[in-house]
Amino acid sequence: MRKRCVGGIVHDGEGRLLLVRRGRPPGEGQWSIPGGRVEPGEDDPAAVARELKEETGLDVAVGALAGTVERPGPDGVTYEIHDYTATVTGGTLRAGDDAAEARWVRVDDLGGLPVTPGLVDALRQWGVL
Fold this sequence. Notes:
Blueprint: E1 2-10, E2 17-22, E3 31-32, E4 35-37, H1 44-56, E5 58-72, E6 78-91, E7 99-105, H2 119-125
Parallel strand pairs: 1-6
Antiparallel strand pairs: 1-4, 2-3, 2-7, 5-6
């Protein structure tokens, strides 16, 4: 079974990347870009904006598709994840929903964090790091 998911790649004015630490499986305890499942009847940009608001408290304008990855999930599920660039338009940064923590991270500091497998490689390949 396949599940469509989205993520939002957001940088601040200092070039830092917005990351959340997952509070639930899959990826519990790991850092990743904010995102989640696309709800029935929702298009990708709406899902990105909703997920970022729920997980980070930030309002965003969703931009272009940066790239797509597939990741295995529990019970034979495959997550098809479409990651989009986004720009903050409002809100206050705070962790919410299934995010245990949310923060801006310098690209140089990514190596010291337990990030989800393949995240840094994908972001570099897409030219967003």
